Amino acid sequence: MQQFTRTIEIGRPPESVWPYLSESDKIKQIANFETIEQSPEGPVEKGTRWHQTMRMLGKKMETSDEVVEIDVGHRLVIRSIDSPFPYTMEYVLQDTDEGTHVVCHAEMGESGGFFGKVTEPMVARLIEHEFRGQLERLKALAEADA
Length: 146
Known about the structure:
Blueprint: E1 2-10, H1 14-17, H2 19-22, H3 24-30, E2 33-39, E3 49-56, E4 59-71, E5 75-82, E6 87-96, E7 99-108, H4 113-144
Antiparallel strand pairs: 1-7, 2-3, 3-4, 4-5, 5-6, 6-7
């Protein structure tokens, strides 16, 4: 299993950061998604699912995620339910004097077989790089919304 944790400080309160992790139109702004659909529509809650399409290494890829734990405004845990590489992502927002401390923790499960064992470290590095970029875009967009 591959895992990583990244953090970032955002100069906005958690209530200004949270929508970028929980609203489809804002998620699309920080993620590398071509499309994103939420089911059911409305506020995100346990069981909410997202289906997204993206390009990775020049190839179109579709994934689906489900919210497995949520503490609105503070913590969001999603897991893949349809992805070539299974994963779980946890976002924690902590209120600070300067704004919000965001922790992103990811765990990638094994995709199995020889191909999976050979490619998992490379894919994990690509995903880690993408999430680093997403956190930077999250910071830029949330702070620009001031």
